[in-house]
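Milestone 3.1: sequence recovery, worked example.
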């Protein structure tokens, strides 16, 4: 067999494995989404974010880059599929994007399993990824699935013999941190490990070059993320603002008073304003009352012609949605622009002074 024939055979095997995995993972994600999306606040945020991004609204771009809880890679992966889905079904582009990322990891996972001596499992690599997709699901852990896919590819490339291929793994290590907050920790540990190895072991020139290229690739992806935040949010480190709330429970709001009920009881006839990713959860209320949704609210962002009485709604600190709010109750203390109007166990309402 010639080298050309071997190369074509390898390429065809990769395409076949990727295609099978894409179909299996898509089925797993769609079935899991249809079963769990109805009651998930996280899914309301993810789907609303993608709709606004598809509509080219500024709030969509802001939501895509401004939170460590919703990292950009899954959204970027969904963009190529938007032209192929109906405007009312943009959420399926998100599922297809996740499936594509996991499908790219199918052949690398199979070869990794073979190298680790798990011969019986290597043929089931697409099925293993589909099971992971079904177990985690896109509703709660879509970003984590994207991170897992990039991590598999990065580890696979790093175990290759060719220095050029090992250097390429740095791009995928960068995508690991672009996919999930946990990826940031993994990449940080990876870099610390490299520094430690360089400190106690003398490396060959080729290996040093590989490690430098990997670090530069990671730094390049990180720079893109910081640049996007600087351009869109006005601060390169805007996502770090909510890092202390990142691991707070984000499960459903069952057992808590719906905002619509609290609003009708405490602020009838007024106009609500919500700031942060959590505003996607209350879009029906905002639409019914002609309210406003922001990612980073400030009274100066209100339209100059607005004369209605506006009320800023902030989830109480104990509410699961509080970690997705741009503002905390403490942010309003000492500000003459916010007057506490009412408070329930789940919600706090502030009358906004729109004057500059």
């Amino acid at each position: 067999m010639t080298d050309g024939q071997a190369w074509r055979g390898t390429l065809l095997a990769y395409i076949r494995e990727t295609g099978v995995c894409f179909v299996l993972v898509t089925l797993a994600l769609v079935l899991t989404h249809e079963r769990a999306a109805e009651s998930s606040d996280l899914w309301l945020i993810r789907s609303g974010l993608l709709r606004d991004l598809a509509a080219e609204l500024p709030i969509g771009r802001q939501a895509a880059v401004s939170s460590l809880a919703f990292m950009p890679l899954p959204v970027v992966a969904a963009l190529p599929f938007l032209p192929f889905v109906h405007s009312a079904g943009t959420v399926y582009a998100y599922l297809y994007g996740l499936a594509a990322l996991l499908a790219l990891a199918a052949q690398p996972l199979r070869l990794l399993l073979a190298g680790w001596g798990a011969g019986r499992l290597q043929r089931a690599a697409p099925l293993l990824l589909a099971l992971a997709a079904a177990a985690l699901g896109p509703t709660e852990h879509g970003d984590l699935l994207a991170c897992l896919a990039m991590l598999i590819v990065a580890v696979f490339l790093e175990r290759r013999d060719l220095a050029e291929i090992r250097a390429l793994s740095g791009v995928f290590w960068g995508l690991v941190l672009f996919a999930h907050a946990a990826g940031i920790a993994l990449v940080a540990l990876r870099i610390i490990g490299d520094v430690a190895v360089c400190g106690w072991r003398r490396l060959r020139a080729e290996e040093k070059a590989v490690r430098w290229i990997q670090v530069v690739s990671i730094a390049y992806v990180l720079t893109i993320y910081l640049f996007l935040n600087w351009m869109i949010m006005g601060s390169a480190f805007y996502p770090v603002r909510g890092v202390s709330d990142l691991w707070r429970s984000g499960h459903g709001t069952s057992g808590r008073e719906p905002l619509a009920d609290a609003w009708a009881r405490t602020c009838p006839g007024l106009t609500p304003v919500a700031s942060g990713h959590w505003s996607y959860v209350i879009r029906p209320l905002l639409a019914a009352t002609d309210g406003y949704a922001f990612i980073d609210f400030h009274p100066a962002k209100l339209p100059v012609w607005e004369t209605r009485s506006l009320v800023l709604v902030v989830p109480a600190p104990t509410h699961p949605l509080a970690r997705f709010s741009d503002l905390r109750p403490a942010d309003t203390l000492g500000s003459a622009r916010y007057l506490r109007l009412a408070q329930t166990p789940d919600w706090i309402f502030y009358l906004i002074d729109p004057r500059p």
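The chain has two domains: 3-241, 259-352. Residues 121 and 128 are 9 Å apart (CA to CA).
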